[in-house]
Design goal:
Elements lengths: L3 E3 L4 E3 L2 E3 L2 E5 L9 H11 L3 E5 L2 H4 L11 H11 L3 E5 L15 H7 L8 H14 L1 H4 L9 E5 L11 H13 L6 E5 L3 H7 L5 E6 L3 H11 L6 E6 L15 H13 L3 E8 L10 E3 L8 E3 L18 H11 L22 E3 L1 E6 L1 H8 L4 E3 L13 E8 L9 E7 L1 E6 L2 E6 L4 E2 L9 E7 L15 E8 L2 E2 L3 E7 L26 E9 L8 E5 L5 E6 L2 E7 L7 E4 L6 E9 L10 E3 L1
Parallel strand pairs: 4-5, 4-11, 5-6, 6-7, 7-8, 8-9, 9-10, 10-11
Antiparallel strand pairs: 1-2, 2-3, 12-13, 14-32, 15-26, 16-25, 17-22, 17-25, 18-21, 18-23, 19-20, 19-22, 23-24, 26-31, 27-30, 27-32, 28-29, 28-31
């Protein structure tokens, strides 16, 4: 056991100054079988601490039904075994380019803008969640022999609001739940952000990607004493679907790291290892300075151009960072441990043998929720769908001429069928089909969420058809809707319930669930990872042996999905592809090099 405190100038461990050299690594973005390796990579880079967020929506996908809350505790135990301290950022909001910023859909769907405020109904849920979660942290604090040094209050709240009562409630709640290590806040180094997000008596830290001295000068205006820390040093960035791949020059990032350290500050490298947004948990952003523009969905890969890449391998940035960090070790580079063995890639290229196909309608009818009928379209939240899609069905009254058919408040993309024939794809909030729709037509709109906004004033916005369907300027009422949650396909035995039909011919552009087999050699048992590529497919999700490796999308920039070796095996491996757009060449799927 040890005593970790915040001094007038430094962090103190049993009264002696200590500098935190931390790296972000999110346990929920890395397969548990690979935690040990990734933590060893952080240690070998010269770090003494690891930082992680906690996504509330992952652990409470349904109101009152918790899922593997103990994963956080197991990760903290793994950090201790790796010789690392830990910083925990439990939210309840985390941003993190994660679906809805970590807030559950069932919460924001009901409360809207009341989330992240001192609202009584919101706080009832926060109190309940923290009391379920925080024992994992409290019993692993450094003053109880564990690795946890600090715990964050909310996350970058100054970028969102000014409700000081809310922040004070969270700080008091953390203490009530047994947190005795120092608390902290983190915000951008701007006056309005630090004013809105900091709390008297709680250490404030800053987040930035460059101009460290200027950032710390702003922080010092708000906090004249106490240790300096950059809680998020953005050494890279994340990708949006349909945009260019983002990289940051390794030498430039290393120079900023050296500048931070030269200021005598502690640092948390964001990200040290990014990992992967498995199972469709990617968030999204809104374009524009006021975040009112088009949706920008985040890619499945969260490689982040980090020093340890998505597959766990060292990059040029890793070696430059290691050199910069070695200068702040007691014995220089000689005190740093060796790197663990580099992860082994499954070599060769292996195509799928397709065994059958199920139409999208059958998938929704068998694995979806109950069909509802209401005057207006229900949202995803009202249908209890977090990640997935909703089928809306309605009839255009007869006795009228063809008129334009449009959707108000569409989030995010709708494939429209008129009398069973694909009529177009709508992908803006207020959109209209190119061709008019006649009276008496049966209309289906298959609406997919591309990820809830995780940052800014539009966080928590609903998905689906949030306004209505118009024929000319008239609302069409009487809507039948059925939702499909993505996790319904991961339930053991669920896919086996689906009818199995013949695989559609190549170039048919057919949606649906394709089911097949990947036959792998004995060497697959020794592989740590593989790349899965789908050059002939449109947009959808892939499962390998029941594990959802994430969304694919032909618009790029991501061209391959990372598959952890722990989900692969020698011999036959099941593969399911849920195609939601147009699969032009199912034979194009390959796994391997």
């Amino acid at each position: 056991m040890a005593d970790f405190t915040v001094g007038d100038e430094d962090f103190l461990l049993d009264g002696r100054p200590v500098r935190l050299l931390s790296g972000a690594l999110h346990y929920f973005r890395v397969h548990e079988a690979q935690w040990g390796h990734r933590l060893a990579m952080l240690r070998a880079m010269g770090l003494n601490c690891v930082e992680t967020y906690v996504p509330w929506n992952l652990h409470e996908p349904f109101l009152g039904r918790y899922h593997d809350v103990a994963a956080l505790g197991r990760f903290l135990d793994a950090a201790r075994e790796a010789g690392l301290w830990a910083i925990v950022r439990p939210g309840p909001y985390i941003c993190a380019e994660w679906e809805n910023g970590g807030l559950p859909h069932w919460l924001t769907g009901r409360l809207g803008r009341r989330a992240r405020t001192d609202d009584p109904e919101y706080l009832v849920h926060v109190n309940r969640w923290f009391r379920a979660l925080l024992p994992q942290v409290a019993e692993r604090q450094i003053d109880r022999g564990g690795p946890v040094l600090m715990v964050q209050v909310e996350n970058e709240y100054g970028s969102y609001g000014t409700d000081r009562g809310y922040l004070r409630h969270l700080a008091d709640l953390l203490h009530d739940c047994g947190i005795t290590v120092p608390l902290f806040t983190s915000d951008g180094p701007e006056d309005h952000m630090l004013t809105g997000g900091s709390l008297p008596g709680v250490l404030a830290t800053a987040n930035f990607g460059g101009r460290a001295r200027e950032g710390f000068e702003v922080l010092r205006r708000h906090q004249p004493s106490g240790p300096l820390m950059c809680m998020e040093f953005w050494c890279g960035w994340f990708d949006h679907w349909g945009a260019e791949h983002v990289v940051r020059d390794a030498a430039d990032a290393a120079e900023t790291l050296r500048e931070i350290l030269a200021c005598g500050a502690s640092v948390n490298i964001y990200m040290a290892h990014g990992g992967t947004n498995f199972a469709g948990w990617s968030g999204a952003n809104r374009a524009g300075d006021l975040h009112v523009g088009a949706l920008e969905p985040t890619a499945t890969s969260y490689d982040y151009d980090a020093p340890v890449d998505e597959a766990g391998r060292p990059t040029e940035k890793f070696w430059l960072f290691r050199e910069a960090l070695a200068a702040h070790q007691d014995n220089g580079a000689d005190s740093l441990p060796r790197l663990p063995p580099e992860p082994a890639l499954l070599t060769g290229s292996f195509g799928a043998t397709w065994e059958g196909w199920t139409s999208l309608s059958d998938v929704v009818d068998v694995l979806g929720g109950e069909e509802s009928e209401s005057p207006v379209p229900p949202t995803f939240e009202e249908l209890d769908v977090d990640r997935g899609l909703v089928r809306y069905r309605l009839d255009v009254p007869g006795g009228r001429q063809p008129y334009p058919l449009g959707v108000l408040g569409l989030r995010d993309v709708a494939t429209v069928y008129v009398d069973g024939v694909r009529a177009g794809v709508l992908d803006s909030e207020d959109a209209t089909l190119a061709d008019p729709v006649p009276g008496g037509a049966a209309v289906e709109l298959w609406v997919e969420s591309l990820g809830r906004v995780n940052y800014g004033p539009r966080g928590g916005e609903s998905k689906g058809i949030t306004g209505g369907v118009l024929h000319e300027r008239q609302y069409l009422h009487g809507v039948r809707a059925r939702g499909l949650r993505l996790d319904a396909l991961s339930v053991p035995g669920a896919v086996a319930k689906l009818p199995l039909g013949e695989v559609p011919p190549t170039s048919s552009g057919t949606t649906g669930l394709y089911r097949g087999r990947l036959d792998l050699p004995a060497s697959a048992s020794d592989a740590d990872f593989a790349w899965l590529r789908l050059p002939g497919w449109g947009r959808g999700f892939v499962w390998v042996n029941g594990f959802c490796v994430g969304r694919y999308w032909g618009v790029g920039p991501q061209r391959g999905l990372y598959v952890p070796g722990a989900v692969l095996g020698a011999g036959g491996n099941e593969v399911w592809v849920l195609e939601l757009d147009e699969a032009h060449d199912p034979a194009g799927l390959t796994l391997g090099t």
